[in-house]
Amino acid sequence: MSVLETVLVELVVVLLVATTVGVALSRIANIPYTIALLLVGFGASVIGIPHTIGLTEEIILLVVLPALLFQGGANVDLQRLRENLLPVVLLAGPGLVLSILVLGVLGRYAFGYSLLFAAMIMPTDAVSVVAVFEDVGAPKQLSTVVESESLLNDGVGVAVFTTILAVVAEAFQRGISPAEFASAADLAWSIGFELLGASLGGFLVGVVAGYLVYRTMVVADDAMLGVTLTVVLAYGSYFLADALGASGAIAAVVAGLLIGDRGETEALDPQTRITVATTWGAVAFLLNTLLFVLIGLETPIDAFVDNAGLVLVAFVLVVLSRFVVVYPLVTVANRWLADPLSRSSQHVVGWSGLHASIPIALVLGLPADLPIALREELRVLVFGVAAFSLLVQGLTIAPLLERLGIGRRPPADAVYRLLTARLCGVDAALESASRLHRTEDLPTDLYVEFCETYGWEKRRLETAISQLLERYPSVRRRAELAGERRVLESEKEAVMEAIKSGVVEGEDADRLLETVDARLERVEAGESNVQRLEERGFREFWRDAIDAYDIDVDEPQLDGHEGRSNPDDE
């Protein structure tokens, strides 16, 4: 059997055993599936099970990361991301850089090479915590902020680490300290320039590649082609951006966001959407299984135990550095948020910054020209902090949510839907009681009691809905757009019925449909049509058809002749 065949067979066995044991362990112990897989890997490492599959930088950065970033981006609610974009950008960009600097200062005397370690360990990984959020019913806003920050700061973290590593490697080659080789100002300038180029380049590549694939999906709506195109997009955008010196991680995330928002909602029919979503869900499941099992297998248990004190100190400093940055940045962002993140939510944002796949990929990719002692110590620290982060933080997220009362409180959107559904039921009951009273099937005294009871509840429901919408403008906004979408869909159905019955046809029929579709597109993009259209420079096309009849629709007629027909037409 060849080496390739051996690796493939072992890969299948590892995935099969790990999946079975991981699912069983997660259900029995009631822990997230990814953490259960990590424990499976730890167990196999302690037992000493032989394996030829190794965790390498290439596996993480070139195989696992592009797919998971794309799939994560495609699953993000873009409307919620728009509403919470400021805290996400602040935490993923300036927040990550500031946390690296804070850890660099705090760990200077503990490690000596603190800035390199800080740049390596601070990028966050939200794979496990998002699964926990779903299990305990955390607010969607909190999930959106944590997951989106994690997706975006991967690219920022790699860019910062690359710049710092280049300085450190060059300093070691010259036999001088990094501080002697580059001043703080020079390093800051290099990091800023690298971040700007990597972020902007990755964004542009993701937008262009995502749009091209979206247009292709519009032309050819096919399930298998959709899956193929999204796979090509995920890896193609990542590799293309990386080849151009930009951030492949940001490119993959942006491409996923664009396809998830536009391609899956407009370009594909329901069956194709289901096929694409199911396929990517299976891909993410398998890649997460492989990643977390290999992390457990590759964690140097003996070295970890020997350096447990140092690893614990590093873990505490990493968590502290994140909290030092999270509170002020989120407080600043809250000034512009329609739904500010509460202090309890800020606790969760800080604690949910898990550190795993990206830090491990970076430490595995350290160049060979660095001193071997430095590389080994960094490897122990990074793997140790990743293990602490996943186990300690990952396993305590749910209790923290419960203690803060976040997991038990339903999202404001869900409360709004509950209240409006009950209000519809109350209105239906009042209407039915009125109808039965008119037909004398309901006695007057009983009818009065019904009206008093249901009327009292109706007033309380309306008050609760009004206060909820006033307190949560984003809920009001989504409710308005949802109502407008239903109205426009009814309008479109009426237009389609008129076309089928022959009331209107040809170019007029096309223009009627185009008008409704254009308004629906604006609603899907979060823009309301409920305003005077003329303020947006919009003119209904049907007004051209009545210009020849000298009909004025801009000013109401007050002479009492509204609706009178032209005698010449009779």
From TrEMBL:
One of its GO terms (cellular component) is plasma membrane. The chain crosses the membrane at residues 6-26, 33-53, 59-78, 85-106, 112-133, 154-172, 192-214, 226-259, 279-297, 309-329, 349-368, 380-401. Its main location: membrane. GO terms for biological process: regulation of intracellular pH; sodium ion import across plasma membrane. It is a multi-pass membrane protein. Keywords: Antiport, Cell membrane, Ion transport, Membrane, Sodium, Sodium transport, Transmembrane, Transmembrane helix, Transport. This is Sodium:proton antiporter.
